[in-house]
Every structure is written in C-alpha cells, then in structure tokens.
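Hey,
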Amino acid sequence: MENTHHDLFERIKEMFMKYSIKSVTMDDISRELGISKKTLYQCVVDKEDLVDKIFAAELVRVEAIIMSIKQTDLNAIAKFIESNKLMHEIMDNYDPGVYYDLRKYYPNVYSKLVNVRRKHTYEAMFNNLEQGKNEGLYRAEINSEIIAKMHVLKIEAMIENDFVAGIDLPKAQVFNEIFTYHILGVCNEAGIIEFNKLTNNLTIENQ
C-alpha cells in the first residue's frame, strides 16, 4: 500500500509541477489518476495534507541520498562532489511557481519544508567540514559551524531569492560557481590538489 501511495504522490507532484499547486483541484487529481475522490481521501485528509505528504516524501528521498553519500568510504571532497550532483538534480527540477504557491497558500507546509531542508543542509555540511579537517584536506582553522550556516544561506538564496533567480544563467551553473567558491575557500593545499585531481577525472569520464 505504501508503494501505491508513493506512486500516486509522484504522479500528483508531476501535475503540480506542470500546472501549479493552486490550479490543480482534488477533482482534477482523481480524474487524472483514474481513481474516485473517495479513494483519494482514504490517503489524505484534504489538499493541504496531500501537499504536505508529497513534499515530505521528497525530503525523505533527498535525505536517503545524503545518508548514502555520508556512509561511503569517500573522502570529504569526493563526498561534496557527490552532494553537488544531487543539488544539480534538485535545481534542474526547481520550479519557482511551485514554491510561490507553497509560500502563499500552504504556509505551514512551506515552513516545515524550509526548516527540514535547512537542518539537512547544515548537518551535511558541518559533518563534511569536520571530516575534511580530520583528513587534512580542509584548513584546520576554519569554524565548521559558521561555514555550514553560511552555506545554508547560500543555498536558500539560490532557491528563494529573486535576485539570484534574475541572473541570466542556468541555476545549475550558478550553483556550480557557488560550489567551486566554497570548496576552494575551505581546502588547504593538499585539498586543492585532491579537488583538481577528482574534477579532472570527472571531466575525463564525461567525455
């Protein structure tokens, strides 16, 4: 049953991304999915509950990927590169209209989404910084707490800030610049050598 709900939520999320959350009604959803509204309401209480469950499921998916990266034997820089790939996927699928609808019509869902996203981002970055320092790849004197919080602010600006949205470049490219700026700022000489080696290998693999 859980897998069935997951499949339904994925299809509904696609509708939200295509038509916007506000414009899609419960009638639209039941018609598109070929199920009765009674069946739909066996899964959720109302539309707000549906929106909440859909975005909660997405957060669980992202957290699972972050955890799988954390549990690998990769060094801190390699893990950060893998995390960057995840962010590229998120930014490629980012739709400002969806987040606008969340902010305006479902503020409780939006607030929960932002808080969980910030928590995940902060914890992942803090752990990465500590690992990098322990491995001798990041500068020993950096304050992991401050840098991790700054990184959260940069990610939030990427997602929420109209100024960043107005930059005439793909969001993935903007994030890649932020990624490079961050990693070169925290790496020591050994870390920069390792970063260049890993990114050069990545370029060769993609050719």
